[in-house]
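Please, does this match?
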Amino acid sequence: DLHVRSRRQRQMCIRDRVISKSLKIDRVFYNCGHGHYGLTHAATSANLLCSLIEGEQNSAEIKALSIDRFL
């Protein structure tokens, strides 16, 4: 049953959001894991991603959303 299966899957949480630069490829950036908040957080995510692309990596917000926290 699809309904039963979907309830067992882990739901995306806002803490799973990643806005980060790839650790292996210089020109690859991640902006994912927004779940159902995608459109709501689109503008803020875009601003953070632009800052990251421009080379700002010391922001507390950028560090908090880095892919490094999963490693």
